[in-house]
Write a structure and sequence with these properties.
The protein is of the alpha/beta class. The chain is 43% helix and 13% strand.
Length: 404
């Protein structure tokens, strides 16, 4: 008699249950982001099988395709059959003419976060798979991303303070979720653009598969990049603590404090990348900074710009130009230099002191003074920050259904 554990359907069922278990422990409300594709449909059904209550299903309708409203209604019916409350979240307002995928993605997470607040949830789950991770790494590789981008999508990240986004299925192949849905007789929407070679992501996927760059290899690259980035991040945080002082630090419970011990702690980057809540002029010890490895120095400056209230966007190639081409050579030779990036003036003097403060406004347009390319007014460039946004769009692609 065969062992029932050898059944592929049972294997996938157990894999889904094990992947969801850490996120569904307890009885706190959880929002499931379900678009209607196989991945998020499997997420909804598997989560319902693992937990009796406190699950809320949400479908973001971007209104970009004629069939999107029907797909949202289909998800609502499937959720009702499982006894789960469902909400359709429409993206309203004027659509941008450019970068619509990025705007749609930002709107999707904004709407999900707002719905989570409404139902009292502190966690949103999505159905992103191993294949989505590989595609994300590939797109970031094409965009010229650094190690943080090549680390791919994080298994968990903040959406806003007190609310996390998690992807329990990042280790599971899409084909397994499709097979599970079909074996269970669970209907799901199929996106024809996934096989349409008019779109760049489809052509690239097929080309690289033929050349041997498989999903497994791309995911392995992400794992290695994440491991290295974590080590560099820890080194940068330790180095930042040794090189910086706040010229003016604020205390939420009292008057301004001098920099150093007792100063306001380093805030995390804002959700979506870059920028502390308040502008805090900083001073860095340029002698220590100049002695750091370049990769660590880059991250120290990125932390400093965040701490000082740097504006978006965060672009790695501009940070590299500032740090590697201008700042570090000046510090190592004892020259003065002044540059502007992310709305901040970064100045080094011959004594190797680095000061970061708000850049003065330009006459007439209110923009910070400085070279146009450092201010983002030069040629167009993809966002390639040390911390990348999720799911970058491929060239030639368009938004269809939100990725599961």
């Amino acid at each position: 008699m065969s062992d029932p554990r050898d059944d592929p359907g049972d294997r996938i069922r157990r894999a889904l249950a094990n992947a969801l278990a850490p996120w569904l422990a307890g009885d706190a409300p959880v929002v499931l982001a379900v678009s209607g594709g196989a991945d998020s449909t499997a997420l909804m059904h598997a989560a319902a099988a693992c937990r009796a209550g406190a699950l809320f299903v949400a479908t973001v309708d971007h209104g970009l395709r004629p069939e999107s409203a029907d797909e949202a209604r289909a998800v609502a019916r499937a959720a009702a059959a499982l006894g789960l409350p469902h909400a359709t979240l429409p993206w309203e307002g004027v659509r941008p003419r450019a970068a619509i995928q990025a705007e749609a993605r930002a709107a999707r997470y904004r709407l999900l976060a707002a719905h989570a607040r409404t139902v009292g949830a502190r966690l949103v789950l999505t159905g992103h798979t191993r294949d989505d991770q590989a595609e994300t790494v590939l797109m970031r590789l094409i965009a010229g991303s650094g190690p943080a981008g090549l680390a791919g999508m994080r298994r968990e990240r903040p959406l806003e303070p007190g609310l996390a986004l998690a992807r329990p299925f990042l280790d599971i192949a899409k084909v397994d979720l499709v097979a599970w849905c079909e074996a269970q007789g669970v209907g799901f929407a199929r996106d024809p653009s996934n096989a349409d070679e008019r779109y760049g992501r489809v052509r690239l996927r097929r080309l690289l598969e033929r050349e041997g760059l498989s999903v497994d290899r791309l995911v392995r690259l992400a794992e290695r990049a994440a491991r290295d980035e974590a080590a560099l991040g820890e080194a940068a945080a330790a180095a930042f603590a040794s090189v910086h002082s706040d010229l003016v630090s604020t205390n939420a419970h009292g008057p301004p404090l001098p920099g150093g011990e007792g100063a306001a702690p380093l805030p995390p980057p804002a959700v979506g990348g870059g920028g502390a809540a308040a502008i805090v002029p900083l001073r860095l010890d340029g002698q220590i900074l100049a002695a750091l490895p370049d990769a660590v120095a880059l991250r120290v400056l990125d932390l400093a710009l965040d701490r000082a209230g740097g504006t978006l966007p965060r672009r790695l190639e501009r940070l590299e130009r500032l740090v590697l081409v201008d700042l570090l050579p000046a510090l190592r030779s004892g020259r003065a230099v002044r540059r502007t990036l992310r709305g901040l003036a970064i100045a080094a003097d011959p004594a190797r002191r680095v000061t970061i403060r708000p850049a003065p406004p330009r006459r007439g347009d209110g923009l910070a003074a400085g070279a146009p390319d450092l201010l983002g007014k030069g040629e167009g460039s993809a966002y390639i920050g040390l911390a990348c946004a999720d799911e970058p769009a491929a060239a030639g692609s368009r938004p269809t259904r939100p990725r599961d």
